[in-house]
Amino acid sequence: MAAKTEAVQFKSGGRFLTTDVQTDEVFTREDLSPAQQMFGRIAEDFMSTEVIPREQEIYGKDWALTRELLLKAGELDLLRVDIPEAYGGLGLDKVSSA
Questions:
Q1: Potential cystine with 80: which of 25, 75, 89, 94 (Cβ 3.0-4.6 Å)?
Q2: pLDDT tens digit sequence for 46-71
Q3: For residue 80, what are the domain limits?
Q4: Is residue 38 part of a domain?
């Protein structure tokens, strides 16, 4: 008889607050790889320096500004995260995308 292995089931949402879980069942920011951390810093920096200061213009439907920001985001590879590599994207996982 073959040995049965069980996959680790991560607790989603806030269930880890109300049920008994092991530490390896809860994903934390410390579980991010150095590449994922770097990508997150790039995205955070872009948002804080380029997008948030121009929030009113964006919500005011300044389409020229929107195009400009999308071009800048594209230069930083922020727009190719979820696109498979076969189609010219980065093909990163959902954790990196989030």
A1: 89
A2: 999 999 999 999 999 999 999 999 99
A3: 32-97
A4: yes
